[in-house]
Write a structure and sequence with these properties.
Number of domains: 1
Distance between the termini: 35 Å
Shape: globular
Strand content: 5-15%
Order of helices and strands: EHEHEHEHEHEHHHE
CATH superfamily: NAD(P)-binding Rossmann-like Domain
Oligomer: single chain
Number of strands: 7
Bound molecules: nicotinamide-adenine-dinucleotide
Length: 272
């Protein structure tokens, strides 16, 4: 069954991890997909993978924090692929660090990339979809539902995404717009994010946790397999495609009565 046949989607952060998987699953289910990323070559590679599999896609280099670019993302998508009715605000970073050592510059960058971008994208999508309707899907995290040591700014940014999503959903309905807005909250998903700035999280871990990590990774990076083993009832990290399948459901008309809700995909991590 092609869940989103004939629809046009925009996916930010589509060069890697969850964004790449979401773009591929949306295309598999019949959507034409505009893949954007700060990594323009990576976005192009995802679009090429979609075309190779027989789907329709285009790509653009986009910094999601750049306000002026959002208009061209929607305009270019419309001229290349058709009127967009799906936006996946997925691009994100995790700058870890203990609060007492955390700089204001890192705090502001964390909030800009994870939160300002979701506001800018949602505003652009509401303006573009106000006549035709659509579905906006914002990537939050289990870190937007509860606190964790060493990632306070990330938690704050994802908590903001959670509640902004609810407010946007209520506002769309109040305005009579046929636009649904939902947030997705992944647990530990096996993507390259664990090799990036989040590695500073280890600084605030307790000695015991640190020893397990160091033994498995040489201390250079966080291993999602090890983290999931200790935190997730299903005892494994999620695959990016498993988040993509939830995103395509929320993008499709199968979820036509679902808006303003938080959708957790975490192997049971928040169940206990
Ligand atoms: N992997 C996990 O365990 C996990 C868990 C919960 C939530 N998330 C969230 O899911 C989303 C995707 O994460 P991922 O794990 O796939 O990470 P990833 O690092 O694999 O991919 C993120 C992508 O976003 C892009 N990006 C970063 N800053 C950008 C910017 N300013 N403008 C445009 N693109 C930018 C990167 O180039 C990269 O391609 C993020 O919002 C992340 O916070 C991930």
């Amino acid at each position: 069954m092609a869940l989103v046949k004939g629809k046009v989607a925009i996916v930010t952060g589509g060069a890697s991890g969850i964004g790449r998987a979401a773009a591929l699953v949306l295309a598999r289910e019949g959507a034409a997909v505009m893949v954007t990323d700060l990594d323009g070559a990576g976005a192009r590679a995802t679009a090429e993978a979609i075309s190779k599999a027989g789907g329709k896609a285009a790509s653009m280099k986009q910094d999601v924090v750049d306000e002026a670019l959002w208009d061209s993302v929607f305009a270019d998508t419309k001229s290349l692929l058709g009127t967009p009715s799906i936006l996946v605000n997925n691009a994100g970073i995790a700058i870890a660090g203990a609060i007492m050592e955390y700089s204001l510059a890192d705090w502001q960058k964390q909030m800009a990339v994870n939160t300002d971008s979701v506001f800018l994208g949602t505003r652009a999508a509401m303006r573009a979809m106000k006549e035709t309707g659509g579905s906006i899907i914002n990537l939050s995290s289990v870190a937007g539902l509860r606190g964790s040591s060493g990632v306070s700014a990330y938690c704050a940014s994802k908590g903001a995404v959670r509640l902004f999503t609810k407010a946007a959903a209520v506002e769309c309905a109040a305005l009579g717009l046929k636009i649904r807005v939902n947030s997705v909250h992944p647990g530990i998903i096996d993507t390259p994010i664990w090799q990036k700035d989040i590695t500073r999280m280890t600084e605030t871990m307790q000695a015991e946790q640190k020893a397990v990590l160091t033994a498995s990774t040489g201390g250079n990076a966080l291993d999602p397999n090890v983290i999931a083993m200790g935190s997730t009832p299903m005892a494994r990290p999620g695959r990016p495609e498993e988040v993509g399948e939830l995103i395509v459901f929320l993008a499709s008309d199968m979820s036509s009565y679902i808006t303003g809700q938080e959708h957790v995909v975490d192997g049971g991590l928040t169940a206990r």
